[in-house]
Design brief:
alpha+beta; STM4215-like; 7-stranded mixed β-sheet; about 45% strand
């Protein structure tokens, strides 16, 4: 499977499923290497990190391309971790243990990054960040 096909499949699947009960986006989504301006208190950054591809067998033409789906989750600082973890649960619901057009995903984990300051138009906003990661293999 081509790298860009993997990206398209995962991005489209996330965007289609990152919605509430009224089919509205849960939060704004920042995509890799794309312009993004946002003043929302909650938002996510979607990314894919590829790992070293390998042949499935000696001399075989089938290639396995592993990697991680990374969703950085940002919520308002000093409001507890609950809102961020609710969004991380949604990421897990979307990606954990799925088969998507030749992409197989595994368990989702969460890492705490902590608090940071973001500047928009010279105004500082406090944010709390966690990262939801899901390992995948594409064939």
């Amino acid at each position: 499977m081509l790298f860009d096909d993997i990206r398209k499949t995962l991005e489209e699947y996330f965007e289609d499923n990152w919605v509430d009960n009224l089919s509205q986006p849960l939060t704004p989504i920042a995509w890799q290497n794309s312009p993004f301006e946002n003043e929302a208190e909650q938002w996510v950054r979607f990314g894919i990190q590829f790992a070293s591809s390998a042949n499935a067998s000696l001399g075989g033409a089938r290639v396995i391309t592993p990697g991680f789906i990374s969703v950085q989750i940002f919520v308002k600082a000093d409001a507890g971790a609950g809102d961020a973890l609710v969004l991380a649960d949604k990421v897990a619901e979307i990606f954990q243990n799925k088969t998507l057009s030749g992409i197989f995903t595994y368990a989702t984990s969460v890492e705490t990054v902590g608090e940071a300051i973001r500047k928009i138009n010279k105004i500082e906003y406090g944010e709390y960040q966690i990262v939801s990661k899901t390992r995948f293999e594409a064939t």
